[in-house]
Amino acid sequence: MNTLQNTPPHTSSTLLALVLALSSGAGLLTLSHEAEARQRSATFTGPNGQSASRNVSRSQGNVSSTTTGPNGQSASRSVSRTASGTEATVTGPNGQSATRSSQREAGSVNSTVTGPNGNSATRSVDRSASGTEATVTGPNGQSATRSVTFQP
Question: pLDDT digits over 33-62, tens only?
Fold first, then answer.
């Protein structure tokens, strides 16, 4: 049974955390072939009669979705993928957006996440035959680096 509840709009920090979480696997995605275009829609009705709907459209690796809650407020997500990178935007019901931009090259992935308040965080990963180094820099400028060395 679906149960719907009215929840307050996400705060900007929650949106930024969501986009950071979504970006963590961006370097692992590859497009092996062009995806067929398709659209899907669904409506959910809870026991109290309130409904929510979700519309999703996919075409050649790109995804757009909109979710509308029982109060009429909507949130959307748009992702555009190419062989060299990904651009994603999440917009909450209050109209504020957070974005993620990732660029891929041989052996490296660089991502930037920008929240609705304009603060940014970055993640850079460099891979080689001898190991991997990942650096994350937060909006306050502090960074952390993790290095993994492969043994022969």
Answer: 444 679 999 999 999 999 999 999 999 889
Q: Domain check: are 136 and 118 in the same one? A: yes
CB 23 within 8 A of CB 16: no
Alpha-carbon distance of 116 to 90, in angstroms, equals: 10
Distance CA 29, CA 49 (A): 39
Pairing mode, if any, of strands 120-128 and 108-114?
Answer: antiparallel
pTM of the entire predicted model: 0.67
Query: Could you tell me if 145 and 103 lie in one domain?
Result: yes
For the chain, the C-alpha Rg in angstroms (whole number) is 18
Residue 19, CB-side half-sphere exposure with 13 Å CA sphere? 35
- Give the position of tokens 């035959």: 129
Strand partners for 42? 54
Q: Is residue 9 pLDDT above 50, yes or no?
A: no
Q: What range does the domain containing 141 cover?
A: 96-152
Q: Which of 35, 42, 22 is nearest to 62 (CA)?
A: 35
Strand partners, 52: 44
